Amino acid sequence: KQEVTQIPAALSVPEGENLVLNCSFTDSAIYNLQWFRQDPGKGLTSLLLIQSSQREQTSGRLNASLDKSSGRSTLYIAASQPGDSATYLCAVPSGAGSYQLTFGKGTKLSVIP
Amino acid sequence: EPEVTQTPSHQVTQMGQEVILRCVPISNHLYFYWYRQILGQKVEFLVSFYNNEISEKSEIFDDQFSVERPDGSNFTLKIRSTKLEDSAMYFCASSATPGHPREFFGPGTRLTVL
Q1: Closest-CA residue in chain A for B90?
Q2: Cα(B80)–Cα(B55) distance, rounded to whole angstroms?
């Protein structure tokens, strides 16, 4: 059964700092990995999707990497801003041939002005 | 950008009552999903739906739950007899293909069972 762990559970940084969020998963037979953003009481916004054949994906100040063999992904946020404050979720398919996503519990990021 | 919409945004019901949560997926998407998130916990998969039938379901999705695409645009989740533990945020999602799906999520319906 796929398990996803995210570390740290919460992170508080001053504005302008670069930061890294970590995600690990137990079943490396995935075909993609997604990072989502969730604002309090709101839905999920897909930030980045990395296919299994890719090692990283970039969107603006966000860069996500994927190391399937070690079961790890990182989300790098450059020059953090208060508007980046949210919970960041990592999600992978639950297993071979499955399209359901298994989510981590998330990292709650607070960027202090 | 097209988006998934959900109604209502908040539903309050009494234990034992039936509720129907509604979703309008992105128009050219073919695969539909329901997830839920109990307060403070992980987002959990409930069910996926394609070609008018369930393609996958989790152990959470028992006989109290059902899904339907009644009219070609809406996708509904019905809970027949709600329990206190059904209180959660329910998210609908849709994707164009299942092969390398990028699932687009709706804003959620907060269900409160009293």
Answers
A1: A43
A2: 21
Beta bridge partners of A65: A56, A74
Residue B95 CA, distance from chain mean position: 14
Test mutation, B10, B30, B45, chain A, max A CBs within 10 A: B45
CA dihedral B52, B57, B62, B65 (to 10 degrees): -40
Distance CA A97, CA A87 (A): 28
User: What is the token pair recorded at B36?
Assistant: 């839920």
Cβ contact, residue pair B102, A36, below 8 Å:
no
Q: Which of B22, B59, B61, B43 is nearest to B103 (CA)?
A: B43
HSE, side-chain direction, 13 A CA sphere, residue A5: 8
Touching check for A51 and chain B: CB below 8 Å? yes
* A17 within 8 A of A80, measured Cβ to Cβ: yes
Please name the residue that has the structure tokens 């059904």: B86
Asked if B56 lies within 8 A of A98 by C-beta distance, the reply is yes
Give A112's contacts (C-beta < 8 A, 6+ positions apart): A12, A13, A14, A15, A82
Residue B72 — pLDDT band, cuts 50, 70, 90? confident
For B21-40, write each residue's pLDDT tens digit. 999 999 889 899 999 999 98
